[in-house]
Amino acid sequence: MSAPTFPHRTVLLSTVGLVFVLLLLFGASACQSVTGGPVLSAAEYQERVAETEAAGERVLGELDPVPVTGGGSLDEASGSCVDDFGFDDSGVTRSEPQYEWTLEFADRAAYLAAVGNLRRTWAGRGLDVRRVEPDRDTGLPGVTTEDDGIELTLAPDWYSHEPVLRADGGCVRHEYSYEDAYGPSSY
Asked: How many CB atoms lie within 10 A of CB 138?
């Protein structure tokens, strides 16, 4: 058997070089993923918080039948959204904007109808709709999807077992200063 000819060697070297470059790009992407993704400015983070709330409000408006009552609140702390490895520089923090609305429906049938209607609405928009397993105490199922990187879920709460609508903006690295949270220092 003879040695590969020049054109074959060029193709082989080009392929090896391309694979090497792709591995470098994949490695860089994986490192950014491990470190938590890009760092957003404080203003960009506030935009993400507003987008998360708006997505939840949109779903709230899509509920049919409409809940009897419902109150919402913002929570930005999450045990799964911390810098365990010390990648974040000074002035960078992580937050997970989550809005939650505790809902009350007229009865079990109204809640189940709302879940079914929401499933159809989301599927009609081309979203990937997933079923949330029934709550162990109430037997009520739920439904979840992701829309523009925001996870939306209608399901019974893990602790209270009451129906809740959650909009989760995901773990976000962003710039932060003491003044952002508390205003200018008086010292």
From this structure: 13
Burial 46-70 (b: 16+ CB within 10 A, else e): eebbebbbebbeebbebbeeebeeb
Q: Is 168 exposed, middle or buried (0-12, 13-18, 19+ CB in 10 A)?
A: buried
Give the strand order in the sheet containing 172-175.
Answer: 39-40, 172-175, 92-95
pLDDT, tens digit (0-9, with 9 covering 90-100), for 37-91: 777 788 888 899 899 999 999 999 999 998 987 666 666 555 557 655 556 666 7
Q: Does the pLDDT of residue 106 top 70, yes or no?
A: yes
Q: Are 160 and 140 in contact (CB under 8 A)?
A: no
Assess contact for 138 and 161: CB atoms under 8 A: yes
d(CA 163, CA 127): 22
Residue pLDDT, tens place only, 126-181:
999 999 999 999 999 999 999 999 999 999 998 999 999 999 998 888 777 655 55
- Is residue 172 classed as helix, strand or coil in its secondary structure? strand
Contact of 11 with 63, CB cutoff 8 Å? no
CB–CB of 49/169 below 8 Å?
yes
Rounded to two decimals, the pTM is 0.70
